[in-house]
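Colleagues,

For the teaching module next term, I've prepared a clean inverse folding example: a structure given as tokens, and then the sequence designed for it. I'd like students to try predicting residues themselves before seeing the answer, so please don't circulate the second half yet.
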């Protein structure tokens, strides 16, 4: 009887663990979001002899309770790098943001990247304490896009294959400053996702005031270290007409944050000269979306016939009634005292004296809830 009881107990333990594991990676949905405040840094801020700026991506290290934020400095002002930050959120308020370390990115030979050899934009932390970092790429300067793995000490460990359709060539590939801006890892650590800000050249035009742009979300299978699928994502048109009307404007998919199987938050950033930035946060689902990895060009295809990613507006940051900078990074932070989860956004100041590095904090309620219920 004792052995039979032990077997039942063991089975129950295994089943419970399996259920908990399944729940931990199940897709979540954000039910409610609340603004907790902002902290800004002027563009002349220095840390350990580097100019703080260009913060284009951010990721949270729950073990060390710190954040890593990538600078998009192309090794021009200082060597390419990421910063380590502490962010204090308590009493439903963002209280303090502190830079505590800076790490130089090193190539496979252990040397800092040469000027204009990369364009770092996205960053995501794995459970084995390594970082994936994306380089957006700039065809005009012959900077190639990449998605590579680095140690927390900054050394490049692995180069992931980028499908040929994304590589710049005549009438093909990513556009300058409209490529791999985003990066996120699924909670089960199996998949890595990045996306183009706008359409690659052979897929269509970039976003304008009147039309959006067909971007591609690129999925990597991390168990194999290979690209697996691609999905169509429609970027919105530019939010407002620039002033003067013929001056620069853009809108792009600048960040993704995985919520679990097939679900994400996406961040779209629109900018119009003379007007400023418009930032929108969407919930995105790939459920039922078609894999378009075998389609080399979307130009002559009726895009209405392709099952694309579905998106639903979660928050227009204009509703916060604050001046918005060039917000490009997003990550979940720790659980808060009320059982909600923190959400952190950061801005890329373009190293411009007219801009700031902006950190925004929110609390979010998800279903299922990923945080302990307070007692």
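(Answer key — instructors only)
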């Amino acid at each position: 009887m004792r052995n039979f009881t032990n077997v039942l107990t063991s089975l129950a333990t295994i089943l419970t663990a399996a259920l908990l594991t399944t729940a931990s990676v199940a897709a979540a949905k954000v039910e409610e979001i609340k603004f907790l405040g902002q902290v800004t840094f002027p563009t002349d801020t220095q840390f350990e002899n580097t100019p703080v700026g260009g913060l284009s991506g951010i990721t949270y290290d729950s073990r060390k309770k710190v954040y890593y934020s990538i600078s998009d400095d192309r090794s021009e002002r200082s060597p390419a790098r990421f910063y380590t930050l502490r962010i204090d959120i308590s009493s439903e308020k963002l209280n303090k943001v502190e830079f505590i370390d800076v790490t130089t990115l090193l190539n496979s030979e252990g040397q800092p990247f040469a000027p204009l050899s990369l364009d770092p934009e996205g960053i995501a932390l794995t459970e084995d304490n390594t970082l994936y970092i994306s380089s957006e790429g700039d065809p005009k300067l012959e900077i190639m896009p990449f998605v590579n793995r680095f140690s927390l000490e900054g050394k490049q460990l692995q180069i992931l294959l980028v499908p040929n359709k994304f590589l710049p060539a005549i009438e093909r590939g990513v556009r300058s400053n409209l490529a791999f801006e985003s990066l996120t890892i699924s909670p089960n650590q199996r998949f890595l996702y990045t996306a183009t800000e706008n359409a690659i050249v052979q897929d269509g035009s970039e976003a304008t005031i009147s039309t959006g742009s067909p971007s591609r979300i690129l999925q990597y299978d991390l168990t194999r270290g290979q690209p697996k699928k691609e999905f169509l994502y429609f970027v919105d048109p530019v939010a407002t007409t620039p002033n003067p009307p013929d001056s620069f404007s853009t809108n792009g998919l600048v960040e993704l944050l995985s919520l679990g199987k097939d679900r994400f938050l996406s961040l779209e950033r629109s900018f119009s000269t003379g007007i400023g930035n418009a930032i929108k946060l969407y919930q995105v689902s790939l459920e039922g979306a078609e894999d378009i990895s075998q389609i080399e060009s979307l130009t002559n295809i009726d895009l209405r016939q392709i099952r694309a990613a579905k998106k639903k507006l979660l928050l227009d940051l204009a509703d916060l009634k604050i001046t918005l900078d060039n917000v490009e990074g997003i990550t979940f932070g720790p659980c808060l005292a009320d059982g909600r989860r923190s959400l952190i956004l950061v801005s890329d100041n373009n190293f411009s004296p007219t801009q700031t590095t902006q950190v925004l904090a929110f609390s979010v309620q998800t279903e299922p809830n990923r945080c302990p219920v307070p007692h």
